[in-house]
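Repro case for the chain-ordering regression, as requested:
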Amino acid sequence: MNNVIVGISEMAVSNTADDVLTTYSLGSCLGITFYDTSLHVGGMIHCMLPLSQIDAQKALENPCMFVDTGTTKLLKEMFALGCRKSSLVVKIAGASAVLDSKGLFKIGERNYTIFRKILWKNSMLIHAEDVGGNISRTVRLEIATGRVTIKSGGVEKEL
Amino acid sequence: MNGNSKNPVVNGSGDVQGRRRALIKEKIRTFPAMPAFVAQVITMLNDPAADAVTIAGRIKFDPGMTANILRLANSAEFGARRSVRSLQEAIVRLGLKQLFQLVVASGMGRRLSKPMPGYELAPDELLRHSLWAALAAEELCLALSIHAPDMLFTSGLLHDLGKLILDEFVDASKVEIFKVAGEQKLSFEMAEAAVVGMNHADAGAAVLDQWHFPAELVAAARWHHCPEAAGEYESIASIVHVAEFLSYAEGIGTGIDGLGYHLSQEAIDNLGVRKKDLEWVASHTLDKMRDLEKLLKD
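-- result from build under test --
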């Protein structure tokens, strides 16, 4: 098994059966996985912020930082490998919240909302999600099977 | 002094708490001093008579630090038009403030890199969290167009030093801390104080005080979870508080405690932080973080 680590504002796409894509400690960030069930190609991205308009220059340098530009980039790379929208399974995790009564730090919720909008525009659906709450999550995607697992507070479960 | 605005109680455990507190105090007393080299350089940096020549004369005996200083001075951030080869020239280009930051970061890096089973932080996670808080604090000042206090970066870097002291105590009482936090609806540092006898903010401040760090820096560490109680140092404590909160929100060094702290609305209001400021700071901090991690790597 080959562990491919996806850092904050990074993405990875693989069609190597041996690979497991992993992203650690998602807080308000959104971890997105796409998996093509017929080609066994998987992609993962760890987006930090919802919209690229906050910093156009940064979005050019590093589109993976933002949910809007990052999702588009990940989809493009997957399509380039022959993936089709109709066979993509979408699973997401993260978007948690910190204890902030007035919601100034609702970055997680905004990340989630923007992602849903993008999928809706692309006529795609979220197949499974583990989002929100006050917890930190680690996500893995096995390229051979498409299995996605979430680990939080020492407990691992399949998504 | 206790960094809490409330004093939660754990029923019938006063004696246990007292004993733990005594153990913690002993650990603070015997906590290793700042690495000698770092302490010497800091003393020199605070000495008005010391110039670049004297400081370079001391630093040149530490090859790792020398390399870091040269690399930073030649980095794009300093608009290196022509490359700096000598340590003395590098020190002049960086200035004493930057040099102080770099010496503390290089000197403390190894200690902050230890894994912490109590707070459930992997190796390097506390260092990443500390660097993130330090950088985000500076970026926050830029975003808000406010003057960054001189000690801000170093305050951010050392705000969680107390976790090195308390990790073993937290490890032994994790279940109890969460039980108390849940039952009494307390933020993590309050439950930590209620169960182990002291919170990590007070423990860190005690060490920094023992190291004779400036009062401003000690106060920022002590009050980083309750900045409105920091008196004349409220501003620096508030900036560190918000920067650290952002680090947790982004999942940097979150551990078991990171999402269990309360945001100080007073800090937000006093600094005038808006949602877009936070996002701007987060995006800029990430890039600076990558540069700094690279710089401190070896």
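Ordering looks correct now. The domain at 2-158 of chain A is CATH 3.30.1330.200 (60s Ribosomal Protein L30; Chain: A;).
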